[in-house]
Design a protein that fits this description.
With 467 residues, the protein is α+β, with helices and mostly antiparallel strands. The protein has helices spanning 19-37, 75-96, 99-104, 106-122, 125-133, 138-164, 169-177, 183-203, 205-211, 214-217, 233-236, 259-262, 283-295, 307-314, 326-348, and strands at 54-57, 62-65, 68-70, 228-231, 302-305, 352-358, 365-366, 372-382, 388-395, 401-406, 409-411, 415-417, 421-431, 439-447, 454-461. It has 3 domains: 7-220, no CATH class; 223-314, no CATH class; 352-466, Immunoglobulin-like.
């Protein structure tokens, strides 16, 4: 059965220039600039919080994104961000096809960068192919060595930048310069360096074809008004070779030069129609337009277009690009709802959270004066960037007595919590109540200075006959 499987042929994309190649360069520089420089951006959150604009602080279990701070229990915010990103991707895909894959996907960006290095060191398509397939010579050895050395440097910088998102960037860079980096950081950098080198240097288009699920279900987001890269068969067929001075009478404008195939990073022939492997990068358009300039024909034999528009041209009519249609309206609606919910969650999030756990052993204690005492463990989350002092009060009990214990000592009703911190207190609550079923009570936590900062927790007070 193995005769059905052949060795993966390496693709050697040819250099091309044009407006879409320029857009890809701009997108690559913009994306790499954001990725490498973002960890060094500063954001003033006050003296008690980190000033790195984007930081995932694993030791303290928090994530910072400019003015947004996410605590572990606020995983719904992260969920909302992922949903927004997914719906936005679906929306853009329904309008413009796989432009994300062709211009902004990390696999595309880093592969493009690695191919550029390969081209600078080894030459263009034919030179690279000849070098790779030829015998081992000194030229082949040093060119391959230089290429892979630069690849490893880029992969190492990529891995190092990723780790900076989880540490204070200037501090970690300084530790590298002092040769004082933790083994954990080195382990992650080593693994990410290898994966980047492997994916962008060797796997390349195979990641998009075999590993990425997006290519498999992209057609579910396409319709006849989605902008895709298409070959104008009405104008291009029948194709055939062309010489200067030949007439175009009775033949198509495609001269079968295969320039569109040679520049494709996925190695496909767009003239065979839309294919799963196509990432809509537009390089085949640049290549074809260049050939059209040489033979004196107008651009657009291969172009971004919609299925409806292409068919309308064949019939002699016109078809405008429709932005609003059922599919896009649906995506806009879902995107708007999720965005509004996320905005509300961020605006309405409380600056303090109170969590209460009733003691289980014992459930209650009867004191010598006849009153009943219950114990509670309070966890207070101070989500502000300054130290806070809170006061505790109770609703639902007559003449309650509150005793706060901290670190084994009795404290006054002044619960201190550090900025961006969590404090735990043991509270003893006593009251002269008659034996009855559990009594529903409410513990109220209020900021000592700003009475508008408060939180409540409903719990029970257990008496003698509650068991």
């Amino acid at each position: 059965m193995f005769e059905y499987f052949g060795k993966q042929e390496k693709i050697y994309p040819k250099r091309v220039w044009g407006k879409y190649r320029q857009l890809k360069w701009i997108a690559m520089i913009w994306a790499l600039g954001i990725y490498y420089l973002t960890p060094f951006l500063r954001w003033d959150r006050g003296p008690f919080a980190p000033d790195q604009a984007v930081l995932i602080d694993l030791p303290n279990r928090k994530a910072y994104w400019f003015w947004i701070e996410i605590w572990p229990q606020e995983v719904y915010i992260l969920t909302g961000i992922l949903i927004l990103a997914a719906i936005a991707l679906f929306f853009v895909t329904s309008l413009f096809g796989r432009v994300w894959c062709g211009y902004f996907c990390p696999q595309t960006v880093w592969t493009d960068l690695f191919v550029w290095v390969e081209r600078i060191v080894q030459g263009d398509r034919n030179a690279r192919k000849k070098l790779q397939e030829g015998p081992w010579t000194w030229e082949k050895i040093y060119k391959l060595a230089i290429t892979h050395f630069i690849w490893i440097i880029i992969a190492w910088c990529t891995a190092g930048s990723f780790v900076l998102y989880f540490n204070d960037a200037p501090t970690l860079v300084a530790s590298f310069l002092d040769f004082n980096v933790s083994p954990t950081v080195l382990y992650f950098i080593g693994g990410l360096t290898f994966s980047t080198y492997l994916m962008a240097g060797y796997a390349r288009e195979q990641v998009c074809i075999y590993m990425c699920p997006y290519a498999r279900f992209q057609s579910a987001m396409f319709d006849r008004d989605t902008l895709i890269i298409g070959y104008d068969t009405q104008r291009g067929e029948p194709r055939g070779k062309h010489k200067a001075g030949d007439s175009w009478e009775g033949r198509g404008h495609c001269i079968d030069c295969t320039a569109c195939v040679q520049v494709c990073p996925m190695g496909i022939d767009i003239r065979d129609g839309l294919q799963m492997e196509c990432v809509a990068c537009g390089l085949c358009i640049d290549a074809c337009n260049g050939i059209m300039d040489k033979v004196g024909l107008p651009h657009g034999l291969i172009r971004y277009d919609t299925t409806n528009h292409m068919e309308a041209i064949v019939k002699g009519g016109k078809e405008k690009f429709r932005f609003l249609r059922p599919r896009t309206i649906y995506y806009i609606s879902v995107l708007s709802v999720v965005a509004i919910l996320m905005l509300y969650a961020l605006i309405a999030r409380p600056p303090v959270e109170l969590h209460v756990l009733h003691d289980r052993n014992p459930l209650f204690v009867q004191l010598s004066n006849g009153s009943i005492r219950n114990g509670y463990t309070l966890k207070i989350l101070n989500k502000t960037h300054e130290p806070r002092v809170y006061e505790l009060s109770v609703e639902g009990l007559s003449n309650p007595e509150i005793e706060v214990k901290a670190a084994g000592t009795t404290a006054f009703n002044a619960l201190k919590v550090m900025p961006d911190g969590v404090a735990s207190y043991h509270v003893l609550l006593s009251s002269e109540v008659q034996p009855s079923d559990p009594i529903d009570i409410k513990l109220i936590l209020t900021d000592a200075k700003d009475k508008t900062i408060r939180d409540e927790y409903n719990t029970v007070f257990i008496t003698r006959n509650s068991q």
